[in-house]
Amino acid sequence: MSRSISRRLRAVPSDIHRIPERIGELLTMLTYMRPAGSASEVAFIREYITPTGAAADEFGNYWLTIGDAPILWSSHTDTVHNHSGKQAVTYGDGYATLNYDAKALSVSNCLGADCTVGVWLMLHMIRAGVEGTYVFHRSEEIGGLGSSYIANECPDRLDGMFAAIAFDRAGSTRSSRIKAGNAAPLTGSRIVWPTS
Ligand SMILES: [Zn+2]
Predict the structure, then answer these.
(1) Which residues pair with 33 in a beta bridge?
(2) Which CATH architecture does the domain made up of 3-169 adopt?
(3) 17 CA to middle of ligand 1, Å?
(4) Looking at residue 139, what DSSP letter applies?
(5) 150 C-alpha to center of ligand 1: Å?
(6) How do beta strands 132-137 and 71-76 pair?
C-alpha cells in the first residue's frame, strides 16, 4: 500500500481536533464496521451503549428508560457491512464520506450511516435527558430479528406507548433525511451538516 493511500486510510480525519466534539464522535462511531453479531458490533456496544446504563434483554437489544414520557425511541446497532473491523471515514466541506480508497480496496462496502446516525442521535438525547424509552435493536439488518423478538416475546414492554420514533433509513431504495436541531440533514449514505 502506498504511503499516500495509507495516510488517507486513517481511521479518523487528521483535523478531527478542529471538528466540533459531537461530530468527531460521530466520525469515530462510523469507523466501526458492524455486521450483526460481529466482534466490532460488540466493541461498539461496549464503547457507546453500555456506558449509558442501558440493559440488554435476552436477545441482546439494549433498553434504557428516562422519565415517564410514553415514547419509544429506536435505532439499531448493526450495519450492512460485509465484514467486521474498522474503516476510514473522511471529512471535508461539511461532508462525511466513506474513504473511496477503502471502497476500491474492498476494505469497506458502505459508510454505515444506517444506523450509526440513529445511535448517535439517541446517545445525545440520552445525555440531554430527553424522556422516553430507548431501544437499540440488534440484528436489524439480517431480518429485523431484534424487533421481532420484542414483538413476539415481550410485547408488554411496549404497553402504554403513545408513539414510536425510529431513527432509521426509510425503505431500501432511498435514503431518509432526518433533521436534528441545527445538526444537519442526515442520510443513509452520506452525512451533511452546516459548516458554519
Ligand atoms: Zn437501518
Answers:
(1) 85
(2) 3-Layer(aba) Sandwich (3.40)
(3) 29
(4) S
(5) 17
(6) parallel
pLDDT of residue 20 exceeding 80, the answer is no
Intra-chain end-to-end CA distance of the chain, in Å: 36
Domain ranges within the chain, ordered by starting residue = 3-169
Among the residue ranges 34-38, 43-47, 188-192, the one predicted with the least confidence is 188-192
| Residues 27 and 91: beta-carbon distance below 8 Å | yes
Ligand 1 centroid – CA 137 distance (Å) = 10
Please tell me the distance from the alpha carbon of residue 176 to that of residue 192, in angstroms, as a whole number: 13
Q: Is the pLDDT of residue 186 over 50?
A: no
User: Apex CA 20: angle with CA 110 and CA 5, to 5°?
Assistant: 45
Distance 25 CA to ligand 1 centre (A): 19
**HSE toward the beta carbon, residue 77, CA cutoff 13 A:** 31
Residues contacting residue 72 through CB under 8 Å, at least 6 positions apart: 132, 133, 134, 135, 158, 161, 163, 164, 165
Model's pTM, two decimal places? Answer: 0.79
Question: Cα(119) to centroid of ligand 1, in Å?
Answer: 10
DSSP for 57-116? Answer: -SSS-EEEEESS--EEEEEES----SS-EE--EEEETTEEEE-HHHHHTTS-S---HHHH
